[in-house]
Specification:
mainly alpha; two-stranded parallel ribbon; 4 helices; 2 strands
Length: 86
Amino acid sequence: MEWELKTEKKFRFFISRIPVFHRGIAEGVVTRKAEELARSRNASQVEEQDVVAAFFSDVPSPFYSMMLRLLEQTGFDYKKYGFPKR
């Protein structure tokens, strides 16, 4: 599936900041989930909202605070999509 260019660049930057031993797993899991979410919206490409939702649905709780910090550092505005949901 196609990705919005700006979103893909931010996602690649995010992945590059994850500890090396988690990168492959995180990239695969979040990519699959983001593409699934985009398809469920009948979208032609993955957008920021799909990536953000994928991170919040599939990141284990021990990595939650690191995820929030990295989302902010890499320019993902997760709050505008209603995350974190409590």
